[in-house]
Write a structure and sequence with these properties.
195 residues, mainly alpha, 72% helix
Length: 195
């Protein structure tokens, strides 16, 4: 007789079996690209669906890394535009007929009031602390404990870290966490649940 958990997993595997085998890893890749799901949960979905652990882990990590690479590209482009815009604004103000000290235009709104600053979430505060303490490698590896890798990546690139350095350490972090998750879930399914 099957336990309720074994029955649930069996029904999920029957549902997944209706999808052609060739497309099943691509579903895991898509799941891995979603923030808060990422490689860890996507690998679990793949394993529960009946995929081989290596296929599930690689597909989940691939999806997670592709979304991180997209975030790096978009954030770097946005940062470049903002830095260029502020340099142009400061150059025009300093070279123009502006008053002394008017180069600080970015911190004042249209009414002359200081721009409100939003408080950082606890997760973002942790990533900032880890970045200061451990640099990009530490923030990348510890970041998933606080916020999704896509958010950590955006913080690092927006802060001026090298895109290549961020991509390298995000790849290391994704591989590490997805491997730990995949092995843990595989062991639990094999030795505890018995599926």
């Amino acid at each position: 007789m099957m336990t309720p958990l074994q029955e649930l997993i069996s029904r999920f595997q029957e549902l997944v079996a209706q999808v052609p085998e060739i497309f099943q890893p691509f579903i895991v890749v898509l799941a891995g690209a979603v923030p808060f799901v990422e490689g860890e949960l996507a690998a679990m979905v793949g394993l529960v669906a009946g995929l081989h652990p290596v296929v599930a882990g690689v597909a989940a990590a691939t999806g997670n890394f592709l979304s991180v690479a997209l975030v790096v590209a978009l954030t770097a482009r946005a940062r470049t535009a903002v830095v260029h815009r502020s340099r142009t604004r400061v150059g025009a103000t300093v070279g123009g007929s502006g008053t002394p000290g008017s180069a600080d235009v970015g911190t004042v709104d249209a009414f002359g009031e200081p721009a409100p600053t939003q408080p950082l979430s606890r997760g973002r505060q942790r990533v900032q602390t880890w970045l200061v303490r451990f640099g990009v490698p530490g923030a990348s590896i510890l970041g998933p404990l606080a916020i999704p890798t896509q958010f950590t990546t955006a913080i690092l690139v927006a802060g001026g870290a090298s895109r290549r350095w961020v991509l390298l350490w995000q790849a290391v972090a994704i591989a590490l966490w997805t491997t730990v998750s995949t092995v843990s879930v595989w062991a639990a399914l094999t030795y505890v649940v018995g599926v």
